[in-house]
Amino acid sequence: MNDDVIINKVAIIERCLKRIAEEYQGDAEQLRSNLTRQDSVILNLQRLCEAAIDIANRVLRLKNGPVPQSSRDSFVQMERLGYLSADLALSMQKMVGLRNIAVHDYQNLNIEIVISVLDKHLNDFTRLAQLVLTED
């Protein structure tokens, strides 16, 4: 999709993924023991989620889709309209949940869940970015 807002949000995703890679380096033990790295990684996960939500809302607006009732609903509507696969939409909805905990209940954020996301789901942001850039 050739839209400046989406292109800028994709750039944010790319930058955040790069920062996470620099801080995490696939080393879960180092992340567990280094609070500064944890803060950096979690902040960039929050930014990733915000950029993904903004992208979903922008696509829905440009395609005259329904107005989402929540951040999670943005991805539900994207799936409903055929812009996202069910697995990617569900993953993004879970990322919104993680973001909400990171923002509103930071003390109860489980680092093991963060590590699982880093190891298994960061690519979902790349998938989302690629999808919206190739969408007409």
TrEMBL record:
One Pfam family from the UniProt entry? HepT-like
Q: Which residues form a coiled coil?
A: none
Q: Which GO terms describe its molecular function?
A: hydrolase activity; RNA nuclease activity
Q: Write down the SUPFAM superfamilies for this protein, in alphabetical order.
A: Nucleotidyltransferase substrate binding subunit/domain
Q: Which UniProt keywords apply?
A: Hydrolase, Nuclease, Toxin-antitoxin system
Instruction: Name the residues that span the membrane.
Output: none
The record's InterPro entries line, in alphabetical order, gives:
HepT-like, HepT-like_sf, Type_VII_TA_RNase
One GO term describing the cellular component = toxin-antitoxin complex
Xref: PANTHER family: MRNA NUCLEASE HEPT, UPF0331 PROTEIN YUTE
What does the sequence similarity comment in the record state about its family?
A: Belongs to the HepT RNase toxin family.
Stated name of the protein: Toxin-antitoxin antitoxin component
